[in-house]
Design brief:
Number of helices: 4
Oligomer: single chain
Structural class: mainly beta
Number of strands: 43
Length: about 700
């Protein structure tokens, strides 16, 4: 009986038909880009010889209409943005007439791979921002070009943004002073400089004289010389209300007598055909008739005398920062309102814009509370450092933009004198004849000198070339004769030329302290070139080659030059490089909400000169990436100003890194770089960034069913 049962069971099993037999399957590719396609084929037959059916299904992505043959079927699958790694989102089921079936699964890797490069060669329009970084013609990013300007002479300009500060060093003068600066292009915009329609720095610019009265508009407006309304060739008054309306007739027509050189009662101060020594070189023995306008301040100046009103009574309104008190017509930035550093508490004839409040001297501190005012010279509502403290020696001028020329000016409070044959002083000259002879002198206790020497009003009666020369690295010995330096000299380190020292011993001592950067000046020749228009230069600006980014500003405060020592006011100008910052546009396409960037590969190619390499890893270039660079909703995206940045972890000496992103990361990928180097002469270059990434599911996405 048992034998019969076993035999029957084997017979039944033998009669059960087998399922369809899979003869083979193929897929056109197993690695499919996001929303890419793959062609899938399966071949099968029924061992019983019957017909078979093919059924395609996909848990993710989309399937096209299948194409069936007698023993095969094919279909095209369109991938989603991403899939769960290791899953098989597509399968085909082959079924015969008896309902028996066989299955084939198709596995894929979907989305970009780490080997893909999603950052094309650098070009215009690829960057969200380029801050203090330039895109070069060879598609490289450069930080920054080396410093182009040479401080001194006619040009003061940086090729990259810098943070600029000015530190007071010393003063050696009977005069009082205020020091400020302006942007050259602001003067162009106001019409004071004519560029002749050529590029701004082509060398052919000149000061305008729009009303053609022989006085440049800049100087005419500094002293408000234009005639009041009703007279020919008038100009707008710089300020709110004109204090004195006293016209005078000079060589080329009517002008207004200058309020800055008139007492509180506005008494007339014009004298025609005064015999004065000719201030032209070689002509100083000749007396010539010349008009003179203006008067010297009295010893105790009344509050309203010798003033044009404004924010500060005796700083020309045009040179003040824009404020209601000057009808918002000021163009200046006033770094130091007072440069006194002497043992008394007075300014020259009480003309200073602020009170001298210290009897300490030669300590490198101006005699007023600098921090009570903004770097532009406006009184603060709250003083961050009350009292005169070491912090008052330095004023941070702020960020100076690349390519914008700056012009320094000194307002000097001291009586102008005219003795070109004696002490070398001259009255400022407002108007010159064709032969260079002055036809209108200004007699004033308020003079203005510019770092652009051609803009100064006083003539150089000596005409020597150079105007002055000294040894920068040696202290001045008063026994040394700068015209014929023989004794008490100091030789130039490169040429052994004997020269007098320049700055005082106390200045060298202060420069060598930490407050000034421990600067030791090189023993090198420093000189002031002669000006082509015959006027007197007043600023000697010398780069400190032993400490790049530092310049000594030495200023001569006497009209005509006087002793030409250029140490009446001395300051240290310090520039700090502003870091360069690059942020790319989003370099990943828009993805559905299920996918996020999960892993990144970043490869960089950057460069710095060997002598500038601070480390073997990044030469002062730091990279970061973010995957939430855009905020997207309802089919539109906006730039995220504060994405979640992750630093790229380059190992020392390596230029490639792979990193994982948080599971909750986004799909809007961008990168940034920050370029820094303290040395002005060290460019940093990024020539290529190569970024690949992989996608994964976000944690909150529904996980598709698998089989």
């Amino acid at each position: 009986m048992l034998a019969l049962l076993a035999t029957g069971t084997r017979a039944a099993a033998a009669r059960t038909p087998p399922p369809p037999l899979i003869l083979g399957s193929s897929q056109s590719q197993s690695v499919v880009p996001s929303r890419g396609t793959a062609r899938l084929v399966v071949r099968a037959r029924d061992p019983q010889g019957g017909r078979i059916n093919f059924t395609w299904t996909a848990t993710m992505g989309e399937l096209s209409t299948q194409l069936n043959g007698e023993d095969s079927s094919e279909i095209t699958w369109t991938a989603p943005d991403c899939i769960i790694p290791g899953s098989a989102p597509v399968k085909v089921t082959v079924t015969n007439a008896q309902g028996l079936s066989s299955e084939v699964d198709f596995s894929f890797q979907v989305g970009p791979t780490l080997n893909d490069d999603h950052q094309p060669p650098f070009a215009e329009g690829q960057f969200q921002s380029l801050d203090n970084v330039s895109l070069l013609s060879n598609s490289a990013l450069n930080y920054p070009e080396p410093l182009l300007s040479v401080f001194g002479g006619e040009l003061m300009m940086f090729a990259s943004d810098v943070e600029l500060s000015l530190s007071f060093l010393s003063t050696d003068a009977l005069a009082s002073h205020s020091l400020g600066w302006m942007y050259y292009d602001d003067l162009i915009a106001r019409g004071y400089v004519d560029t002749r329609g050529t590029p701004e720095y082509s060398g052919d610019d000149f000061l305008s004289d729009a009303n053609n009265n022989g006085i440049t508009d800049l100087h005419e407006d500094i002293y408000n010389l234009a005639p009041p309304s009703g007279f020919h060739a008038s100009r707008p008054y710089i300020g709110t209300t004109r204090r004195c309306s006293q016209p005078f007739l000079s060589v080329n027509g009517f002008l207004s007598q200058p309020e800055l050189a008139m007492d509180r009662t506005c008494n007339p101060v014009f004298s025609p055909d005064v015999l004065l020594a000719d201030a032209r070189p070689g002509q100083t023995n000749n007396l010539i008739p010349v008009d003179v306008v203006g008067a010297l301040a009295v010893a105790q100046t009344p509050a309203t005398g010798f003033s044009d009103g404004g924010l500060f009574a005796r700083i020309p309104n045009l040179l003040e920062p824009a404020a209601p008190a000057n009808a918002n017509m000021g163009l200046g930035h006033l770094a130091f309102l007072l440069t006194d550093d002497d043992p008394n508490r007075t300014t020259f004839k009480q003309l200073g814009p602020v009170q001298d409040r210290s009897e300490s001297f030669e300590d490198g501190l101006p005699d007023y509370d600098t921090s009570a005012y903004t770097p532009d010279g406006v009184l603060r509502t709250t003083n961050p450092d009350p009292g005169i403290t070491p912090a008052d020696r330095t004023v941070k001028l702020g960020r100076i933009q690349a390519g914008r020329e700056i012009v320094f000016f000194l307002v000097t409070y001291y009586d102008a004198t005219h003795d070109p044959n004696g002490d070398g002083t001259v009255y400022p000259c407002l108007m010159k004849a064709i032969d260079g002879r002055c036809s209108l002198h200004l007699k004033t206790s308020t003079s203005v000198f510019f770092s652009k020497p051609g803009w100064n009003l006083d003539q150089d009666a000596r005409g020597t070339s150079p105007v002055a020369q000294y040894n920068l690295g040696c202290a001045r010995d008063p026994r040394c004769n700068p015209i014929r330096p023989m004794d008490y000299t100091c030789p130039d380190a490169s040429t052994s030329q004997p020269l007098c020292g320049w700055l005082q011993y106390t200045s060298h001592d202060l420069l060598g302290t930490p407050a000034y950067g421990n600067i030791v000046l090189p023993k090198a020749r420093s000189w002031v070139p002669r000006v082509s228009n015959g006027n007197m230069p007043h600023f000697q600006v010398q780069a400190v080659t032993t400490s790049p980014g530092n310049w000594i500003l030495g200023i001569e405060d006497l009209n005509g030059g006087g002793d030409r020592d250029f140490t009446n006011v001395v300051l240290l100008l310090q520039a700090t490089r502003v870091p360069g910052n690059v942020r790319s546009n989003v370099i990943s396409p828009a993805l559905d909400g299920q996918c996020a960037i999960s892993r990144l590969r970043v490869r960089k190619t950057d460069w710095a000169p060997l002598e500038c390499q601070q480390s073997a890893s990044n030469f002062g270039i730091a990279y970061a990436v973010a995957s939430d660079c855009n905020v997207c909703a309802n089919g539109s995206c906006q730039t995220n100003p504060a994405p979640t940045w992750l630093n790229v972890p380059f190992e020392p000496g390596q230029n490639e890194a792979v990193m994982s992103l948080p599971p909750s990361g986004g799909s809007q990928l961008c990168w940034k770089a920050r370029l820094t180097h303290p040395n002005f002469w060290c460019p940093l270059v990024i020539s290529n960034v190569d970024i690949g990434y992989e996608l994964g599911f976000t944690p909150l996405s529904p996980v598709p069913a698998t089989h």
